[in-house]
Design a protein that fits this description.
The protein is built from 13 helices and 28 strands. The chain is globular, with a radius of gyration of 25 Å.
């Protein structure tokens, strides 16, 4: 085995959306990551077809809106969403609280790959990590690449290599949970002219019968169909029980999907020109710990949820949370316990997602009168606006509030900062303008000189912005690099409580104050 003298700060195993997002976030923080991906080429068939929830706002905060629009991807409010085998309708609300973006995974990965490389990341495809060993100071990985085997040493390794993560297994991190017996087959396909699309959205297949949009349950499984587009494309999913685990990496064919439809509803549905084909079994698994020494897990290597539409949101959010903490440690400015807070916060987030996705399993699985009554009751409860909004925020993870120290009980502490419109001495900006560079910011929204004076002690490490906004939610917000609020001063809070709380928060997240503050603080 030849040895390469090539040291990097962080090795990321896996070049899916989570790994590439982590590489870009590390690059923003001035860290040099290397991404190792075993597949020689970027995927061309979408495994996922869009983003929803809080990560959409996070991409906007990182200034990626123009890039996304350039490839025809625009975020918008969702008017309906499948949930637990039912269709949840948001049209009764004046504004949908759930934001989504249709973007095939290959396009997303290409965008993130380009962004990460621009920020200094290196991505090696066709390089598989076969093992590693770690010490108190470093991790050395064994890699098999196109030109043979070699070794690399880094300060940290992050496993973003999927549900069957080799790195997680070698690190001794348990991945408890269960695999559900249902096999799901999903296809986005075109309908030939022989299939008649009726005015109500039904499909009429000559000599076969009629298929209805929504969910059709039979004793053999579930057939689900979306609306037909003007180009005669439609999304179809089937769900059947199986006694053995399937290989998600084995490509799904049109014939296999058609056979599944025939078994469930007894109809031979003609289909042509597939856009997306995938097969998967739902799992409900979560890593017992997200860190083992100098090895971390993120994305599907850390959690597997029994529902579609949440995995990318969770995995890319893992990356945003972890990157700035690794960067702070590598630069020598991390306070004690900062790296461990990654597990504390993201395992908590994963538990919340697991709760709502497993609830969907309970809703969708049964077909007896009790199960039908449960779904009927659930849909009746969703006629209340507050319940509908609460469910949407749970799906989007916008209700997530990290369990941070919060002496004054401010409702924003631990949440993603809202994009407040701001007026500064330089003009009008938004919070998005403050967080795009992934630096910590103290945003002072009122006349609080004592808070600004404290921030001066962290000059060069924490930026300061003084601004005004209508109906301010706080007198000041301490915003972490991941755009989450570490601390908030209530409106009119007394200096004798606000000042020490701010000092504690700054120390907790950004280390001890600098002994000799710079003469001027970076101002926005």
């Amino acid at each position: 085995m030849r040895v390469l003298e090539f040291d990097v700060d962080v090795i990321i195993v896996g070049a899916g959306p989570t790994g590439l997002m982590l590489a870009a976030e590390l690059g923003l923080a001035g860290v040099r990551p290397l991404v190792l991906e075993r597949s020689p080429q970027m995927r061309t068939v979408p495994k996922a077809n869009g983003l929803s929830g809080q990560i959409v706002q996070m991409l906007r905060y990182r200034g990626l809106t123009e890039r996304l629009e350039a490839i025809g991807q625009v975020a918008g409010a969702m008017v309906a969403i499948p949930f637990g085998g039912m269709q949840v309708d948001f049209t009764p609300l004046a504004d949908s609280p759930l934001e989504a973006m249709h973007i095939p995974q290959p396009k997303l990965e290409q965008l993130l790959d380009d962004w990460a490389r621009e920020l200094g990341a290196e991505v090696r495809r066709g390089h598989e990590v076969s093992g590693f060993e770690q010490s108190d100071a470093a991790v050395t990985v064994e890699v098999c690449g196109p030109d043979g085997e070699y070794r690399l040493t880094a300060s940290y390794v992050v496993a973003c290599d999927g549900a069957r993560s080799r790195i997680r297994t070698l690190a001794g991190i348990e991945f408890p949970g269960l695999t559900y017996p249902e096999v799901n087959r999903l296809g986005q396909i075109h309908l030939p002219d022989s299939v008649l699309v009726l005015d109500n959205g039904d499909l009429e297949v000559a000599g076969q019968g009629v298929l209805h949009p929504g969910f059709t349950r039979t004793e053999h499984g579930v057939f689900a169909m979306g609306g037909v587009s003007p180009t005669r494309t439609v999304m179809i999913q089937t769900t059947e029980d199986t006694i053995a685990e399937t290989d998600d990496n084995e490509p799904l064919t049109l014939t296999e999907l058609q056979d599944s439809i025939r078994r469930i509803v007894g109809v031979e549905l003609p289909m042509i020109d597939p856009i997306r084909l995938s097969r998967y079994q739902f799992q409900a698994r979560q890593a017992e710990r997200y860190r083992a020494g100098r090895v971390f897990v993120a994305g599907d290597a850390a959690h597997g949820f029994p529902m579609t539409g949440v995995g990318l949101n969770a995995g890319m959010s893992d990356a945003v949370n972890l990157a700035w903490k690794l960067a702070a440690d590598l630069k020598g400015g991390a306070p004690q316990g900062l790296l461990d807070s990654y597990h504390d916060e993201r395992h908590f987030a994963g538990t919340r997602i697991m709760m709502q996705t497993q609830a969907q399993v309970a809703l969708r699985r049964g077909d007896d009168p009790a199960a039908l009554a449960l779904r009927e009751l659930f849909q009746e409860l969703l006629t209340d606006e507050s319940a509908l909004r609460r469910l949407a925020s749970l799906i989007a993870a916008t209700e997530l509030r990290y369990p941070l120290a919060n002496r004054n009980g401010h409702p924003l502490t631990g949440t993603l900062v809202p994009d407040l419109p701001l007026t500064t001495e330089q003009g009008r900006v938004g919070v998005a303008d403050l967080v795009c560079s992934a630096r910590p910011v103290l945003l002072v929204l009122s006349d609080r000189p004592e808070l600004r004076e404290i921030a001066e002690e962290w000059s060069g490490r924490v930026d300061l912005c003084t601004a005004t906004t209508a109906d301010r939610p706080a007198d000041a917000l301490l915003i972490r690099p991941d755009a989450h609020i570490a601390w908030a001063a209530t409106v009119g809070e007394a200096p004798d409580t606000a000042a020490p709380a701010l000092r504690d928060a700054l120390t907790t997240w950004f280390g001890a104050p600098l002994r000799e503050p710079e003469s001027s603080l970076s101002r926005i």
